[in-house]
Amino acid sequence: MDKKKRNILIAALVLVVLAAAIAVLAVLNRPGELPDSGSVAIRRGDEVLRTYTTAELKTLPAVEVEKELVSSSFANDAGLFRGVALRALLADAGVDVGALTQIVVRSEDGFVAAYPADEVAESDGIFLAYSKDGEPLGDRESGGSGPLRIVVTEDEFGNRCAKYVSEIEVK
After folding, report:
1. Measured between alpha carbons, how far is 56 from 62 in angstroms, rounded to an integer?
2. Cα torsion at 25, 27, 28, 30 (round to 10°)?
3. How many CA atoms lie within 13 A of 165 on its CB side?
4. Which of 31, 43, 27, 30 is nearest to 102 (CA)?
5. 123 exposed, middle or buried (CB, 10 Å; 0-12, 13-18, 19+)?
6. In the predicted model, what is the mean pLDDT of residues 5-25?
7. DSSP string covering 71-138, please?
């Protein structure tokens, strides 16, 4: 076998091994059982502390912020977002945000974002939105950005503004 064919064979084998590794990691990192779309579970490790429906979220004190979420991959999303401050949501679930180090948000599509607990505790600037301009955010299937999404008011770009939020883990 000449050198060129051997190098092509080695490259092909490396690609097959990488593809297999990616598949295994995707299975291992798949989220566990998620609540119904439009609901969010508050977790500590394997324990679900509380699950909120969108209707239940709407009974909590609301935050409204006019914000443009700038994206490099999708169209910018601008409007008046309404939701509940993450710190208020966690307090309602019986979580002492001051005793935490990190809050991890997981989305239906596998996206994960983490926020330092002190950033969440200091303001209402990180909140779980359920509407924009008075309308529901819409689900993935309809091309929406919800039904629930995180909005970070202090960020210029929307890279920490997780769409399709289904789980919030406290650590």
Report:
1. 12
2. 110
3. 29
4. 43
5. middle
6. 76
7. -SSS--EEEEEEEEEHHHHHHHTT--GGG-SEEEEEETTS-EEEEEHHHHHH-S-EEEEEEETTEE--
List the end-to-end C-alpha distance of the chain, in Å, as a whole number: 56
1: amino acid identity, one letter: M
Residue 157's DSSP bridge partners are 70
* Residue labelled with tokens 């509380």: 50
pTM: 0.79
Rg over alpha carbons for the chain, rounded to the nearest Å, is 20
Contact between 157 and 71 (Cβ < 8 Å)? yes
Phi, psi of 20 (to 5 degrees): -65, -40
Average pLDDT rounded to a whole number, residues 145-169: 93
Helices and strands, counts by H and E, the chain: 4, 10
pLDDT digit string (tens) for 68-126?
989 877 788 899 999 999 999 999 999 999 999 999 999 998 899 999 999 999 989 99
